[in-house]
Design a protein that fits this description.
about 100 residues, mainly alpha, 5 helices, two-stranded parallel ribbon, 2 strands
Amino acid sequence: MSRHSDRGVQYAASDFQELLKDNKIISSMSRKGNCWDNACAESFFGSLKNEWVQDKIYETYEDGKKDIFKYIEVFYNRKRRHASLGYVSPVVYEEIHEMKQDRAA
């Protein structure tokens, strides 16, 4: 498992890094001075929270894991329209891209 964060002092602290290591979590941090490294992840998690999780309380870890999988695989990748992809879903975008490549070959 990995954990990505900005370079905040609380995340770089030796106690926090040791806690991650003890729990077999690999730390990942943005490059120094580059606030855009984390922008995609921040955008995705914002969408997940606002569009799906909101005030849900999961009975078990597995319930949460299944529900978030459903958000990603069923809604986010297949149904949700993404402005950055010309207002189509990632699956449709990939299909269009593959068709264009086939025509060019």
